[in-house]
Amino acid sequence: MKIMRKYGKVLGMSAAALAMTAALTIESSMAYFTTYVSAGGSEVIRLGTQTEIHENIENMIKHITIENVSDNDCFVRVKVLYGDTFLKVDIKDANGSGNWYDGGDGFWYYKPVLKAHQLTSVLDAKILVPEDFDKDNFNVIVFHECIPVVYDDNGNPDWNLSWNVTGEGGK
């Protein structure tokens, strides 16, 4: 009992100091063992490209334009699919602008960069059918693809690099 009286205060003070030290370090220890962090605010990040096709048909000619509805620049290509038993489709750059060209692989490529929220020039698909053919009973399907633009080391858009990065062939 004498020992408790003699060292009681010292032991009590030591225990209190130890408890205070533990209380001060518990928050930093919890931060060390935490695997996530909370953040406030928000910012929308759009990493892809998206396009919409616009088709207008007059006198058996499909006038095709592609609109870039994303916030990123992209390259575009188009393929026209049809049954070749009775149909023939002639495809050409409507304005003669030189922006569309036949890639020789079934696709028509729009060579300039299609800027965000812009439209391509018109690509015409003239549908040729025999005189006695039912002009209301066939499909000509326009398929289009877009990819984000990849820029080279000098900041120039690189058509080939863009298609190759995505695993596709390109012109």
Topology record:
Blueprint: H1 2-33, E1 51-58, E2 61-68, E3 74-82, E4 88-93, E5 100-102, E6 108-114, E7 123-128, E8 140-148, H2 159-165
Antiparallel strand pairs: 1-2, 2-7, 3-6, 3-8, 4-7, 5-6
Describe the structure.
- This protein has 171 residues and is α+β, with helices and mostly antiparallel strands.
- 23% of the residues lie in helices and 33% in strands.
- It has two helices and eight strands.
- The strands form two sheets. The protein has a four-stranded antiparallel beta sheet with strand order 1-2-7-4, with no helix packed on it. The protein has a four-stranded antiparallel beta sheet with strand order 5-6-3-8.
- The radius of gyration is 34 Å and the shape is rod-shaped.
- Mean pLDDT is 80; it is low at 165-171.
Briefly characterize the structure.
The protein has 171 residues and is an alpha+beta fold.
